[in-house]
Amino acid sequence: MTLIDGKAVSAAVKERIKKEIEEKNLKIGLAVVIVGTDQASRVYVNNKKKACEFCGITSYEYALPEETTEEQLLELVDKLNGDGNVNGILVQLPLPNQIDEKKIIERINPEKDVDAFNAVNVGKIMIGDYSFLPCTPAGVMELIKSTGTEISGKECVVIGRSNIVGKPMAMLLLHENATVTVCHSKTRNLKEVCSRADILVSAVGKAGFVTADMVKEGALVIDVGMNRNAEGKLCGDVDFNSVKDKCGFITPVPGGVGPMTIAMLMENTLRAGKLQSL
Ligand code: GUN
Predict the structure, then answer these.
(1) Where does 135-258 sit in CATH, by number?
(2) What is the pLDDT along the chain (278 residues), one digit of tens a residue?
(3) DSSP letters along 192-204, please?
(4) Is the pTM of this model over 0.85?
(5) Ligand 1 within 6 A of 105 CB?
């Protein structure tokens, strides 16, 4: 088994971005919006700001209180849409219940939608005409490629069908000519389907969900899960200890997909800046 080092691959991507921004003397800005006090969101947002600083991207943080109304958040998005210093807008999810996430996402100018959550960008992903790559799936593709594994013609199984990960993940793999199966809570014979996978991507959100009996010998296993186990320790969806002896490659949690998501966000922000200066 070979461990896939997400931190190292992510560092290389960020170095490349930093170098390009320096060499071309680009002025790039990312607005990072967080509503409420969710602890996980706070950690993600801090990491995104740190990555900006490393790459030479100016980050503008907007931390709004839990009781922020939908109207107030829409107002902020409008302001950021019109702000020439802001090339990318990231609204950290989840949002408090009184705010309709879909409404907020759709209000972001698609040219500044560096998460690629907006319907315009999702549509572009479907037809393979990308402005922005969806950050987490794009990070997963980089990790797969870092192993030298050929994707074309392979059996790929994605567990989870969220708009943020599962669905766009399937699309990126399909564009690389994989045979893709998407599994979800209603899938019958989950174990049997997963056991066929040369490349298995889990984005379920349940600690220990993927066990060794679901993994084909020598498979490449990508763990998108970000969970806390009974002891409160950060862990993925994959039962790492049993799966590691069966698979060919595996991503750890933490230090696998997580850092890649952020590196891809930096890439999208740079791309937004360049597209807007054309
Ligand atoms: N919440 C969980 N993942 C993400 C992400 O990739 N982007 C944003 N904005 N919020 C998230």
Answers:
(1) 3.40.50.720
(2) 999 999 999 999 999 999 999 999 999 999 999 999 999 999 999 999 999 999 999 999 999 999 999 999 999 999 999 999 999 999 999 999 999 999 999 999 999 999 999 999 999 999 999 999 999 999 999 999 999 999 999 999 999 999 999 999 999 999 999 999 999 999 999 999 999 999 999 999 999 999 999 999 999 999 999 999 889 999 999 999 999 999 999 999 999 999 999 999 999 999 999 999 98
(3) HHHHT-SEEEE--
(4) yes
(5) no
103 closest CA partner among 125, 82, 119, 88: 119
Q: List for the chain the helix, strand, coil content (%; round to 5).
A: 45, 15, 40
39 is catalytic: no
Query: In CATH, what class is 24-109?
Result: alpha beta
For residues 267 and 18, give the distance between their C-alpha atoms in angstroms, rounded to a whole number: 10
In angstroms, the CA 227 to CA 78 distance is: 34
Please identify which of the residues 48, 112, 154, 246 carries the catalytic annotation.
48
Q: Would you kindly state where each structural domain of the chain is located, as residue ranges?
A: 24-109, 135-258
Same fold, 24-109 and 135-258: yes
Which ranges of 88-201 does DSSP label H, i.e. alpha helix?
101-107, 119-127, 135-146, 166-175, 190-195
CA angle 92–96–99, rounded 5-degree value = 90
User: Which residue CA neighbors atom 3 of ligand 1 most closely?
Assistant: 93
Tally of CB atoms within 10 A around 211: 14
